């Protein structure tokens, strides 16, 4: 059975996700841990639950979602996987990290790339990869059909969507991607977003003011 542990890190209140199953193998998605205490909280949970992290994934590579990439890679000796279209986004961070208040940011390169149609496998768990651009060029989501779980990053929030005014963002692209790649999932799929509380596909289909049935186009 898939388990999802949520940590909320850094001043952006970013959601970091740790996924694991009964085999104790685990993956870490979007580690936003920057301060020592945040890194220790992630590490302590993994240690207490005797988990074995095997992969590090980024839904996308904006600074608040990758602050802990280097720490996680070094601590657990695991590879970082991202979509190739977000590689320039990741490489650009070191040039502006200090301006965002993160002078101790440690640069971290991707070890491999993931594309839509591929799968992420750990333990007895398989996640589907869907490319949902618009917030960033290479934004992906991870979907587990058996438990109807979606790790959505900064695409779809409870009552909102990801911002599109950052470099590489595009509002219409994001709207179309949500409608085709996310709203094609079952209504009872639980969405774990990059910020804020969980929501469901069915709720957002009706109520989301940007892409739902009640949206004003």
TrEMBL record:
Cited CDD domains: metallo-hydrolase-like_MBL-fold
Alphabetical keyword list: Hydrolase, Metal-binding, Zinc
Cofactor(s) needed by this chain: Zn(2+)
Top-level taxon: Bacteria
PANTHER family listed in its UniProt record: HYDROXYACYLGLUTATHIONE HYDROLASE GLOC
Database matches in InterPro entries: MBL_Glyoxalase_II (IPR051453), Metallo-B-lactamas (IPR001279), RibonucZ/Hydroxyglut_hydro (IPR036866)
Source lineage: Bacteria, Pseudomonadati, Bacteroidota, Cytophagia, Cytophagales
Residues covered by the Metallo-beta-lactamase domain: 13-195
Protein name as it appears in the record: MBL fold metallo-hydrolase
Pfam families hit by this protein: Lactamase_B
């Amino acid at each position: 059975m898939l388990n999802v542990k949520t940590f909320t890190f850094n001043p952006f209140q970013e959601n970091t996700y740790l996924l694991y199953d009964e085999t104790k193998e685990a993956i870490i998605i979007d580690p936003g841990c920057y301060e020592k205490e945040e890194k220790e909280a992630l590490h302590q949970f993994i240690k207490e639950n005797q988990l074995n992290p095997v992969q590090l994934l980024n839904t996308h590579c904006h600074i608040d979602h990758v602050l802990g990439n280097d720490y996680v890679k070094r601590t657990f000796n695991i590879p970082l996987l991202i979509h190739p279209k977000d590689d320039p986004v990741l490489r650009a961070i070191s040039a502006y990290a200090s301006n965002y208040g993160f002078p101790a940011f440690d640069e971290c390169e991707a070890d491999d790339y993931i594309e839509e149609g591929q799968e992420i496998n750990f333990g007895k768990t398989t996640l589907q990869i869907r490319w949902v651009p618009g917030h960033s060029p290479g934004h992906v989501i991870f979907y587990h059909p058996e438990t109807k779980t979606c790790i959505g990053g900064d695409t779809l929030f409870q009552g909102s969507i990801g911002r599109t005014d950052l470099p590489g963002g595009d509002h219409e692209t994001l709207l179309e991607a949500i409608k085709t790649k996310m709203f094609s999932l079952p209504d009872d799929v639980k969405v774990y977003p990059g910020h804020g509380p969980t929501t469901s596909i069915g709720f957002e289909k009706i109520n989301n003011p940007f892409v739902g049935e009640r949206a004003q186009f």
